Amino acid sequence: MKNKILKVPKTEKEVSLWVNPDGMVKGSLFLLEQSHEHAGQEEPIEVLNQESPFVVVRLHNPEQLRFYNRTSIIRVEYPHRDSGEKVGKQTIIPCTIYMMDGSILEGKIHETFPPERARLFDYLNKEKSRFIRLYLSDTEVCLINKAFINYVSPADEAS
User: pLDDT digit string (tens) for 108-152?
Assistant: First the structure.
């Protein structure tokens, strides 16, 4: 039955996924055209932090649809273009993340926090979020599964 009326409109976002035990795979996540959490399109972190155990990924090579268990996804990277739209005042926290596979990821967390919860420790311990977002540069974002983090070290603004 191919009834397009029942189909939820989504957009594909190209990403690189590091999956246990496969390693890196290239594919696309499917994003809702309208987020349930904010104005505009759904973001990859919203898809990954959903409670359902599996996420749909369209692989590029070989071309196929897969349903990955969220607990097996180590991290997801994708290009980022700043829209300039900010909700509230963002706190920027530079840090280095040491992964269980030996990877070291350096970057900055850009998030809007309540003043009493604006520490790196608070962000890492945020409930109901399996993945955290780290800006590796002005143009690259990495979503990291907290279950695969060995430890995180705060970085100095000057370094």
Answer: 999 888 778 778 998 999 888 999 999 999 999 999 999 999 999
Cα angle: 136, vertex 17, 94; to 5 degrees:
20
- Looking at the whole model, is its pTM more than 0.85? yes
The amino acid that residue 6 corresponds to is L
Determine contact, residues 68/119, Cβ cutoff 8 Å.
Answer: no
Where do the DSSP E strands lie in 10-118? 10-19, 23-32, 54-60, 63-69, 73-79, 90-99, 104-112
To 10 degrees, the CA torsion angle through 7, 11, 16, 19?
A: -20
